[in-house]
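TEACHING EXERCISE
Course module: macromolecular assemblies
Task: Read the component lines below, then compare them to the predicted structure of the full complex.
Student: A.B.
Group: 4
Components provided:
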Amino acid sequence: MQSQSILKEHLAKTASLTQEEFEYLFAHFKPLSLKKGQMVIREGDKVDHEYFVLSGCLKAFFINDEVKMHILQFAMPTWWTSDYHALYSQTRATINVDCISDAELLSLSNADREKLCREIHQVEYFFRWRTNKGYVAAQKRLLSFMNDDAKTRYEELLQMYPQLHQLVPKHLIAAYLGVSRETLSRLYSTR
Amino acid sequence: MQSQSILKEHLAKTASLTQEEFEYLFAHFKPLSLKKGQMVIREGDKVDHEYFVLSGCLKAFFINDEVKMHILQFAMPTWWTSDYHALYSQTRATINVDCISDAELLSLSNADREKLCREIHQVEYFFRWRTNKGYVAAQKRLLSFMNDDAKTRYEELLQMYPQLHQLVPKHLIAAYLGVSRETLSRLYSTR
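Instructor-supplied answer key:
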C-alpha cells in the first residue's frame, strides 16, 4: 500500500486522476526489490521498462574504453530512470543502471506507458511534463559542463540532491562531477 | 501556405490530426520573418513563446563571465527552439537565441500550447514525443561532452546536421564544440 501512495502523491503533483483511473494505472506497475549492487539495465540489453524509485538510490552510468566511469544520473526516491535512448528508440542499451543501495522500484513497460497515455489524457499530460522537466535538467547539466568549474558543479549537485552524502559514496560523486577523488576532497573541505 | 504545409508534414510524422484539428492548431501560430543577427530571446527577457523554424538557422547560446560564447543548440528547419527552462518555469531567460541567417519562424505561446494540449489529445501526444526526443538528444550530447574527444564530437555534430558547413560559420561550430578555431581547422582538414 505504501508504494501506491508514494506513486499517487508523485502523480498528483502534476496530473488530476480519479481514484479509479489511478488504480487502473497502478495495476500496470510491477514492484521490484533489489539489493545493493544489483544491475537493472546492462549495456547491450534490450530495454523495455522504465523504473520509478520508491526507496534507495540508483545510478545510470557507462564505462569508457579507458575503464573510466561516467555517471549520467543518480536516481533518488520519486525519480524515474532507464536508458531512455534505448527505451524510446527500441535499440540496445548503451548505458548501465544499477543500485547504489538496496532499493524498491516500480517498473512500467514501454507498451503499457503508451497504452495508458492513449487511454487517459491526464496520464499523457503527466508524462509530457515529466519529460519537459527532465529535458530542462539535462540542458542545465550540459550548460554547467560547458561553463562551470568543478566547485560550482559540486554546489549545484548538492542543491539538486541535498541528501547526497548520506546516499552516495564519495568516489561516485567524483565520477558524476568528472573530477578525481582528491579534487572532490578539496571541494568538500572548503565548503 | 507553404509554412502551413511544412508544419503539417512535421506534425504528421508523430501525430494524427484531422484537417480541421490541424487548421485550428495552425491558427494559434504566428509567422515571424527575421534578419540575420536579429535576437529572438535575450538573457533576462520574460519568455512566453517557443519557435518552430521554417527556414534559416538560429543558435541558442550564452556568453560567460570571460566573454566566451557557448552554443547549446543550432536550430535548423523543422527544429523547435526557445529557452525552455525559462518558458516552462516562467522565469527570466538565462540564454540568448538569435538568427545565424535570415529566418522564417512560427511562434507558439506557452498558454496556447497548453490550451491545445488540453483540447486535442493528439497534440499532447505530439509534444510529449517531441520532448522525449529532445531529452534523449540532450543526454547524448552530455555523454559526448563527458567522454568524447573533439574529433568524435565534431563527427557526431556533422551526422546530426549534415548541412552544417553551408549554414553555420566556422567560429560558431568551434563554439558549439567548445574548441578553438585552430583546433577546428585541424579537425576539418583531417577528415
